Amino acid sequence: MYSLPLYVALTLTLLGGQRSSATVSKPEKPNFLMIVVDDLRVELSPYLQNTTLIKTPNVAAFAKESVLFTRAYTQQAVCSPSRNSFLSGRRPDTTQTWNFIDSFRKTPPDGHKWIALPQMFKENGYFSAGCGKVYHPGHPKNNDLPYSWSTPYWYAPPAQVGICGNYKPWCTLADEKCVDRHLADYTIANLTTFVKEKKQFFYATGFHRPHVDWGVPQKFSDMYPQPQHIALPTHKRAPTDMPPMAFWSDIWMESHGIFNGTKIRPEHPIPDYLMGEMRRAYYASVSYVDHQIGRVLEKVKELGLDNNTVILIFGDHGWQLGEHGEWCKRTNFELATRVPLLVKVPWLPESHGKKSTSLVELLDVYPTLAELAGLQVQKGVQGVSFASVLKDTTATTRTIAFSQYPRCRPKKVDNMPRTLTERLQAALVDLPNGGCIEVEKQNFEYMGVSMRTPDWRYTEWLTWNGTQLKPNWNDSRGVELYSHIDDDGTDLNRFENVNRAYDNRYKGIVEKFHDLLRKSWDRNV
After folding, report:
1. Residue 523: its pLDDT value, please?
2. Catalytic residue among 79, 131, 408, 436
3. Beta-carbon contacts of residue 92 (< 8 Å; ≥ 6 apart)
4. Phi, psi of 18 (to 5 degrees)
């Protein structure tokens, strides 16, 4: 958490004291600090109105001086495609990066000429630097040097970092063996140098936790009850009437014994004791990265950067902790696609501490930062700036948010005249990686295209044209319709438990969304 003097200063600010940001004027050339957190779901105290068990005091303090977006969504719920999308400002269908093989720099005919987000700042006189997992390692190669960065990119040396080993998903590590400790140290050192050398900067820090493995110092695990006292999801099985390809079995974690031999199946959740252990480990990991974020934010204030630096904190995608029987990401469900997003603009104090319910996409980060910096975006950037929402949190920039996810399923699944349960079981006879991350894009079987409106999530699972690299819009093999009416985002158990797409009472809504999805997808992609 912030140190006591800084906490007092924050309190005075909130109470209208002398440090009030109301007197802050927009700098001619603001700095930018972008903090990306891997696998971070929205189960944070400022999002769930303190009903969550997870302790994130530093993010909670930051929420009081920023705008918190309650409906922000990733374009694809897995690391590399998501990061290729928001760092290039283009959708996965445009980057043609849906796996861990490709990157936007390889996109024909001119991906190598695209100006990435950090590159935009670099080419406009900023010192662009970063550390950790901002780009997905190797995609683009060499962390997009020499395009994106003004200096060599930095990762913590492997010799300094510990891992849990033996494919254990959680363990106890000394603080000095945790990669995020080193990333925070490096970020703090760079910020100090920037001030000393009077550099205008764009800096990006990519924290690794709460990505597995969940190795953190013991004191962060001690913050939580024992596993048997951890609350579990109320819906542990797949949604009723869910199409089989909508479910993803974490085959990697299964094959390495992480579930103690339990097979992840839509109708068969892992044992409660194991679910409690994994939730506790994830919670501890989130609290640890919150601690590191707090160290960075404290240094920002100590260095006097808080009045001239735009700060963003967001996750690259969500994470499922047993809801619907799912673990990990790699689905089109709400908990996989929805992300935390908090943005502080020092010269807009009227919006500090407020929440926005406007639908936004991570794709929109690029043009938003460009507008805040007064820079022009390259032609072809597809996001929509939400800078207007940072001025007026009642404003709306989108009525639909889009996400997608490929599947690699055997074709024989489609023609099985079996019960839903039998089809679900058969669907899990998969290629080596059910999430398609190591499958060449021309060999996908399906593409799930999903849209989130204020009140609904609608998803279609379409067969894949591997020659044209696009879904076959006239060959839908599964449809999902989930109501989000009265969903304020604070209940992670209540929604998407029953698929209404095959209920005749919702036929009109399905037909409406089918047409809207096709028209909107073509227009946006």
Report:
1. 75
2. 79
3. 75, 76, 81, 84, 85, 98, 404
4. -65, -20
Token reading at 333? 């469900």
Of 238, 268, 271, 244, nearest to 429 by C-alpha is 244
Take residue 131 and report the two structure tokens written for it.
């550390």
Centroid of chain to Cα 384: 18
Per residue in 484-505, pLDDT (tens digit) is 999 999 999 999 999 999 999 9
Kindly list the distances between the CA atom of residue 398 and the CA atoms of 104, 367, 451, 520, in Å, as whole numbers in the listed order.
25, 14, 12, 12
Of residues 79, 524, 131, the one with CA closest to residue 330: 79
In whole angstroms, give the CA distance from residue 319 to residue 39. 6
Of 131, 136, 139, 208, the catalytic one is: 136
Place of tokens 């997870």: 54
Check: pTM over 0.85? Answer yes or no: yes
Q: What is the pLDDT of residue 163?
A: 82
- The two structure tokens encoding residue 353: 């501490």
Tell me whether residue 79 is one of the annotated catalytic residues: yes
Tell me the pLDDT of the chain averaged across its residues: 88
Query: Distance between CA 448 and CA 476 in Å, rounded?
Result: 10
Rounded distance, CA 85 to CA 447, Å? 17
Q: What is the pLDDT of residue 199?
A: 97
Q: Which two tokens stand for residue 224?
A: 């939580």
Closest CA to 289 of 183, 153, 202, 160: 183
